[in-house]
Amino acid sequence: MRLLPHVAGCFGVVLTSLACATSADAGDAKDSPPIDRRILPIAEPTYPAYTELDVRNTEPPPPFEVTAPEKAPNVLIILIDDLGFGSTSTFGGPIPTPTLDRLAKGGLRYNNFHTTSLCSPTRVALKCGRNHHTANAGSIMETSTAYPGNTGKIPNRVAPLAEMLRLNGYSTGAFGKWHETAPWETSVSGPFDRWPVHQGFDKFYGFIGGETDQWAPLIYDGVKKVNPPKKDNYHFTEDMTDQAINWVKAQQSMTPDKPFFMYFATGATHAPHHVPKEWIAKFRGQFDEGWDKVREQTFERQKREGIIPEGTKLPPMPKDLASWESLPENNKKLFRRQAEVFAGFVGHTDHHIGRLVSAIEEIDEMDNTLVLYIAGDNGTSAEGGMVGMYNEMTYFNGVEEKVEDLIPLIDEWGSPATFPHMAAAWAVCFDAPFKWTKQVASDFGGTRNGMVVHWPNGIQKGGGLRKQFSHVIDVAPTILEAAELPEPTVVNGTPQVPIEGTSFLYTFNDGDAGERHTTQYFEMFGNRAIYRDGWLARTIHRAPWQTSGMQPLTDDVWELYNVHEDFSLATNLAEQHSEKLDEMQNLFMVEAAKYNVLPLDDRTIERANPALAGRPDLLGDRTTLTLYEGMEGMLENTFMNVKNRSFTITADIEIPEGGASGAILIQGGRFGGWSLHLRDGKPGYEYNWLGLNRYVIEGSEALPPGKSTVKLDFAYDGGGLGKGGTATLSVGDESVAKGRVDKTQPNLFSADETADVGLDNQTPVAQGIGYGPDETKFTGRIHKILLEVK
């Protein structure tokens, strides 16, 4: 092979090293310099130009291939949603979790691992190794604002772990819940930069938002919406597990030398608490003694099993929550059922995780798979309020459900007929031995989650307990160190913010090692704290069930705890160590400024409104939206906002011979929304108020064959949010029906149900026009729909 002088030089080999070679040494990489994995992607070498005419007289350069380091492990992150420290049997809780128990027996339990206290921030921080505000995820995506640290747009300068591993030779797959994409970036127009397949994952199968109906989920495969498989007793957790098993088996079959990184994040146990009846039945009667007694039993078991120190105290429950003994029997009956459903949901989830673990064992990859099973992205959710909810959407619309209305639904609790959540006192119970819950970033009930690490090839002795402070931002650097990969300084051309977490790999084989993550701030919706060297200073600004009436941030009272001596934060030392408290408060402000935590924003539901939050809004100030057949799956944040205002829908349709039926334009689903449709050929409009009240306006005559214009005018009463209005239905210029809608949903129709043209995805808004996209599909033709708001 002859090389042209000006191109001879570095053409190279990349396997685990990159050669800069000539033809004489091209196949010999043993003396080559190592790959510089700090700059990703690793650049392809410059290949030589050939001067030889006949290929038979030449040799090709060695192939370019990026592979992972020789002993790099597979990585499996399992993340459960809304599951508190005191829930699982592995950490002393009342709910058996045999898969977690089995992994703990062969691995390590961590009793001092922390999250951010909320979904999106934990997930973003987990997968980039930086604090949630550094990654612009100061709260959930739906409450993003215009301020740095809270914009909801993960910046390129904080590349995710999946991308680091993918560019270092891993196959990557994500299954289940995402909740890391800004809500205005979830339409067909994109951008798709912050969707899973643009955040380092080769494969994604799951839902993009914060929650989904487990019986009728909104699923994406990559960026394409797909319908769930049609099967009896379908449940999303089972489905995502099937998908994950199929992927990992196929990946290892095709490329057995290529390690995999799987992110397996269940929608469970976030509301809605949907679980098969046979799993609920397993827990019948097990919570009859109530939340106070179950909490105390968990606390004693945790001490007895050495999960918490013997001298730990059990703090009282928040004063807003009723004692079990003070409750009427009817309330107790309802609340017992709620706990049975939640426990069934936990057990069902752990069972399917067991299927995934067994599949990895079957392909003989378990020994070299680093498993991190994180039992909760935050504490158990108390967003169910004082009595729980038949329909979680009532919480987001400021509607308080009453026990007397929920009692008749007990036998349906957890089924497709409900979208349920449990009473807040159960959340505190399942967060034992702590006092608070999800959303409370200033209490370990909101942030301390049980974690098990399992890696036979990397952990010399299983069954241990690790007590060093660690945080969700420590996961990414731990995995990089385990894989012997450096932290990248440049990814896809963008210089990187240094990883802010600290690897806890040092704890794998040294339980007595000194703590390395020594300082950490916490903040969520005004609740804030600072940890340093065993001390925690904190203030409880708001309860998770409190959405208004908060005191000024400047009036918050700070407390001080010696965490090394007070596991559960039961003894406030603020008066005894006032100077230490001052020091810690000052430190919080330093850290808050450093990581874009300031200014603090304690608003919750109001921030769901883009106009109030100041964040981007896909449709902005537009007052008209033209819709066409085939436009479906439009999430609420990417559709015209028709709430709390008057609007008009004008649909130009065509009816075939024999008549037509089905959805014309709908938004929402069984638990709240509205529908313009034909039923038995007759035009109709139905407003479904939270699944609790239905208002039906319908014409008396079927539309004849040919073109028609169906028009719906909704005149909003005004005078505030959630008021009623008058709906007038017309065909052409003639009014065919008119009626009252007494009240409307002010804030949200659904977290996952969509707006659709010509069909009704997932659960049906209206009664009598079918179920799902096939049955509700409009059997005529839709030429155009104009939606106008006033």
Describe the structure.
- Residues 1-31 have low confidence and may be disordered.
- The chain is globular.
- The strands form six sheets. The protein has a ten-stranded mixed beta sheet with strand order 8-7-6-5-9-2-10-11-3-12. Strands 20-30-21-26-27-28 form a six-stranded antiparallel beta sheet, with no helix packed on it. A five-stranded antiparallel beta sheet has the order 25-24-23-22-29, with no helix packed on it.
- The chain is an alpha+beta fold and 790 residues long.
- The protein folds into three domains: 1-66, no CATH class; 74-509 and 519-584, Alkaline Phosphatase, subunit A, CATH 3.40.720; 619-789, Jelly Rolls (Sandwich), CATH 2.60.120.
- It has 15 helices and 30 strands.
- The longest helix has 34 residues, at 329-362.
- 19% of the residues lie in helices and 20% in strands.
- Belongs to the sulfatase family.
- Residues 73-483 form the Sulfatase N-terminal domain.
- Keywords: Signal.
- It comes from Rhodopirellula halodulae.
- Residues 1-26 form the signal peptide.
